[in-house]
């Protein structure tokens, strides 16, 4: 329990902060009684608490307080001045949550000891954006979450919709219509919370869907993704389903990506726009240098964009009921080429690496660091690939000098450990903390004896 700032001052918020009072009045008139002060932990999981609206001032000035070491990835101690983590509300993010009447969500930035907390994922992304701002640039991202709607039957996880069985279920309208109720509620909830929803469709695996909303500045897009996750979890649960951002729930079907469409801007000028003399690459020189950085740092970026043991079961070519995994495995770029890590489009590129388990703040911050490194070193991404790289045998991929992504979380962590550009974007504490947490995750997995191993080896020798 902590004393509120307004109580400490002994005065009412209105005496000091007329803007806050106006904001509070507006929210009260809109029927809001509580704020959901929300932040993301290192795993990209939404955390927070409810704060009565009367304490809006506290949330904006000091932040809602949390026990720091109870939050994954903070590395904060149990005692002392740096044990308390404050999620300080960003007033620009306040939105009513239609699925929680009377509650408005406000996104918090992490603060410790009165200073921005270096390991808060949103602060990490703020730092990365500030590096761009020094040059007068902003990065815009369009994040495309794919996800599953599942149910648990005994110890099995299955698509929630039993009738969703096509071998190639992409864009299947019959399956889509069976989930119209959920998708419509999700669409309405996101729109009511301020997102511009562009498309909702059935993806290429049983029980898999994708929702797209409009691109925005990188920090806002990451906030939107968190809002999307909050809404989807709530609405699926209300219908007895499990909303899943697990990258690859079914071995024989495609997994869930969280592709990012990326463009760099100076005011209203797109710096990736190739101009009238566009070559086949779709990007300006700056854009080509940026993607070259993203490709050069691809192994370390994997640790943040594909951060789970399960992520590496998605990043493979081949075996899939639908014929294609559509997930990248090769470090290449090409115009509208979905078989490459980087798919270029006029004036932007789609970064196909991230999966649905990625923390959007950390993945974007790492992307910016890699892209800036490409620009600072004037890197060249090599020539554009127009071929279907999924058709090529590995020997040809290697012979062409195309890099292959790490095959496991363990390999990706080794790459992150030795990549100073990406590591420094996280900051020294989070870099170390992330590696430690994720190595523990890998070790736990590596020590687990699975049913596959028993079936294969128990009676084999
Ligand atoms: N589900 C695929 C992935 O894991 C992507 C499918 C698509 O291109 O939309 O990346
Ligand atoms: Mg998709």
Description:
The structure is a single chain. This protein has 461 residues and is of the alpha+beta class. Strands 8, 9, 10, 11, 12, 13, 14, 15, 17, 18 and 19 form an eleven-stranded mixed sheet that branches. Helix 10 packs antiparallel against helix 12. The structure holds glutamic acid and magnesium ion. Glutamic acid binds next to loops.
Describe the secondary structure blueprint for this structure.
Elements: H1 5-9, H2 13-16, H3 18-29, E1 34-40, E2 46-52, H4 56-61, E3 64-67, E4 84-89, E5 95-96, E6 103-112, E7 115-116, H5 121-133, E8 138-153, E9 156-159, H6 173-178, H7 180-192, E10 197-202, E11 208-213, E12 216-217, H8 218-238, E13 242-244, E14 258-266, E15 269-270, H9 285-296, H10 298-305, H11 311-314, E16 330-331, E17 333-335, E18 342-345, E19 348-351, H12 360-376, H13 394-399, E20 403-404, H14 409-417, H15 420-426, H16 428-447, H17 451-457
Bound molecules: glutamic acid and magnesium ion.
Mean pLDDT value: 94
Which structural class best describes the helix and strand composition? alpha+beta
Distance between the termini: 61 Å
Rg, rounded, reads: 23 Å
CATH arch. level architecture of the largest domain: 2-Layer Sandwich
CATH class of the largest domain: Alpha Beta
Amount of beta strand: 15-25%
Number of self-contained structural domains:
2
Instruction: Give the name of the CATH superfamily of the largest domain.
Output: Glutamine synthetase/guanido kinase, catalytic domain
Please tell me what the overall shape is.
globular
**Main sheet attributes: strand count, strand direction, barrel closure:** 11 strands, mixed
Bound molecules: glutamic acid, magnesium ion
Oligomer: single chain
Number of β-strand runs: 20
Helix segment count?
17
Low-confidence stretches: 1-14
CATH topology of the largest domain: Creatine Kinase, Chain A, domain 2
- Residues in helices, as a percent range: 25-40%
